[in-house]
Amino acid sequence: MNITLGPIIGHTTDTSAKIWIRGAKGPNHASREFCYGAFDLYEGAKLVASQYCFLKDYYDFTGVAQFTQLKPDTTYRVECGLVYKRDGDAPQTGVPVAGPVIADIRKATATFKTDRGNNDTRLDFVFGSCRYLYWDNLFQNDAEKGDKTFRSIVNLHRQRPLDFFLAVGDQVYADPLNKLFEYKSFDALCEIYRKSFQLPNIAELMGNVPTYMILDDHEIRDDWSKDQLRNADSGFYAMRMRAYASYQHLHNPDTTNGQFWYSFDKGPFAFFVMDTRTLRINDANAVGGKTMLGREQLNAFFDWMHQHRDAPVKFIVSSVPFFPDPKPMKGADDKWAGFNDERSMILEFIRVEGIADVVFLSGDVHNSSFARMRCYQDPQFLMTSLISSPFYWPYPHESASDFYGGRTLEFMQWTNGNRRTRDRVEYRYEGEGFIGDEAFMAVSVDIGKGKPWCSAEIFDRKGNKFSDYPNPFLF
Q: Cα angle vertex 351, ends 345, 356, to 5°?
């Protein structure tokens, strides 16, 4: 039997790759005949490795195979299928087995390339967020429109191969009409994931380009924070996170202790992907106070930043913008502007530690922009923000007037690396672009001549540059 969704090429390094698929419940499931994914990996015509994975019904029959000991900068083809086995005949999973294991002609294939390795000097990727597909719309089905953006990304990949694709939140809307209509069951929510991910263009993209994801609020509920658990229906949050784990987090890098933040490297370039939703607390009177990241994640971020301080560029993914700030009537409290104490800690750490070439990647606000932040007291400090949103949104978008295009932020902080004196420290950002339309952003980095040369370009849903901002943003 063929797989029902995928394959998706997940986290990939120079020597490994995660391959995600979905199976289906078999006719003898009640008598303990279970579903397994079968994978054969080829380099050209040569079989390199074979593997099985258990497709658990708890995860809606999704799962991953992780292949290791691969060669850098090498193209592989993976063939995937399904087998059904009773307990006594269950294959070994998660380890190499003798192959090939795909005998059935009903198979799905994908082709991908491993990373080039630590000596690489170039990086190209695309990112964006927010893909609203309201399948129950009585007047029109907008799924085809919502898939056009990904056709343009696929075309870009054919012209200049992408190292990976990054989706930074609201990949599906579990609450398409906010609290007026939310998907109430695990099966209904998983059906929305399946319908969204099987559209032809996004399926082709994820089947050829390593894909990384992180959630934002609409995978759970609009403007979600942990405080809302007090008033949520029993099992509501667990069901939402089980669907997210099944369809998005499983193909991300492995994490421990149920955490959803993660980090990865692409050659010498470092990425930290923040979870800005599941640990967020809006109540300043709560134990530990108001927080976006939670203590454990914030400390892990500081530790990661210290360990990667010498990386040529440090990319930080935050589904909500670190800056520029929306104006108060446009939901500023839901972004980092509403968590200034924590934002101050991050700015202080980066400035006092003298960490350069830090870039934030964000989405969420249905408007795309570029911004630079500097510090009046420290001329060496420079930080960049790139925001890309939405992939598809069929309603009015945010405009430039909804944001502070330039703003000064003042905090009491350590004034230098000695940490002996505190004083007022002023940061100033200036933004540009502010494009209110369907879009995605392509980022290129080149360190071949020493100092990083970085550029970002914003494209519309059809793959064209916007006339209001036709030139690359250099940072």
A: 125
